[in-house]
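URGENT: need a sanity check before tomorrow's submission.

F., can you look over the Protein kinase domain-containing protein record below? I want to be sure the sequence and structure line up before it goes out.
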Amino acid sequence: MVPPSTNEQPQQRSVLEMYGYRLGQTLGRGTYAEVLSASSERHGTDVAIKIVSKKLAPREYINTFMPRELHVARLLKHPNIVRFFQSIETTNHVYLIMEKITNGDLLEEIRKKRVIDEQRAGKWFYQMSSAVQYIHSRGVAHRDMKCENLMLDSNWDIKLADFGFARAQIWTEDGRPVLSETYCGSYAYVPPEILMCKPYHPTQSDIWALGVILYVMMYGTLPFNDATYQTLLSEALRGPNFPHTRAVREEVKSLIVSICQKENRDRMTVREILSHQWVSRFKTPGTNTARITNQ
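Structure tokens as predicted:
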């Protein structure tokens, strides 16, 4: 992102301080946004503030994706979802105030460790599956599940983030699925029906991605070669292969295969994933998963 002008910086600080935020260091910059650390007496915690420039951001983002993300963020409250506190809009900027994440994202952790040990992989897989079950119960699908959108908080727990491609109202009033024809997400994580541009139910995108993410944690690489579209589609239709370079339990391999079925009707549901013998052993005592009526 182009650094804010000397005139904009005091204005931004004034707006945020008026709402009780004491600004800290810059956490990151992008093409049209920057993220600042801040403390908040009102929320009683440190927060991250994403400052989006209306002048620099694409119109589609300002008019479509950001309003969708804000709408969805206000619907959701779960221990494994990055908490959204508040949005502030001015003439030139939109300020998104959310929970501050201190330990980066899952992809960064995999790159550092190469693979994730079974205990942590199981814990994190249970947490992300619980978050997915919850959002589906609230009528929301994420549609961009990937390692980069799974953050790690100060307790090294998973937090699902970035709902810019999320879809709400995924069920009709009588409980039938509403199909989507918006083909979004990162290709390496999407199911075959999206690669083939077929109408799909958004929850299926999230479920397939869970299988891909579990594979990446256990093996340190993607299950399907995404060098070309045709190769990716061919391998996704074939199903995952498991290298012999690392010993992984057969029950984990069979779980991945059961999630990454080429036909969506053959895939496990999130309820079934959370009840799987390997996954369920990582459930934190005293926690309950969301009740799902449409799965």
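My own read: The CA atoms of residues 97 and 161 lie 13 Å apart. Residues 289-295 have pLDDT under 50 and may be disordered. If you see anything odd, call me.
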